[in-house]
Amino acid sequence: MKCSPLLQTLLTANLIFTSSATQTQIPMSNPNLGPAMPPPSNPPSSSNPSTITLSDVLGADRHINIFAGFTRDFAPISQRFEDSSLNTTILAPINSAIMTLPRKPWEDKEDYEELGEEAYEGGDGADRAQRNLRRFVDAHVVPASPWGEGEKLKTLAGGEVWWEEKDGGKVIQPGGIEVSSIASKVHNGEVWILKGVRNYK
């Protein structure tokens, strides 16, 4: 399948995930480097947390860097995450949940049934794959935050979604997908890490 931009995004994210988990640091021993610079007295990330947006934190957690990479393929999504006036809850599946899907997020069973194995070849195929991937991303973005328990909202893809408290944790419905943690709470929303993938079709 020649869907190189999308495949490259997935492989790059996976490579980052793998290498960051196994890489060790080696101390530098060059005596000519001079003294280390002291840390800045007012780091921007902590001095004014009200200016931090979802775009600043989404890529920080390596457990969801595949999904984070997908979102960067779409300017409207990236712009939403940067916009401090648009509150959003991101339902980010962990890497392993995406990697164990029966099909890649840009693949659609119906495309294969209609067009065969070359469904994603050429320019039309790349456009088709891009539309499918956008649908996947949109199904994991809720245009609201804070988001109350039982409050039924529509994702950017149009499907209705809500969450419930269960056994001391949050579960996304429909589908009963467990929320592993809330990774970030920033000015314009929150990043929720999911243990599974929402039904995106």
TrEMBL record:
Give the UniProt keywords, A-Z: Signal
Q: Signal among the record's keywords?
A: yes
Signal peptide positions are: 1-21
Q: Where is this region: Disordered?
A: 26-53
* Keyword presence, Glycoprotein: no
Give the matching InterPro entries: FAS1_dom_sf, FAS1_domain, Mug57-like
Top-level division of the source organism's lineage = Eukaryota
Q: Which residues form the FAS1 domain?
A: 51-198
Name the record gives this protein: FAS1 domain-containing protein
Q: What is the lineage of its organism?
A: Eukaryota, Fungi, Dikarya, Ascomycota, Pezizomycotina
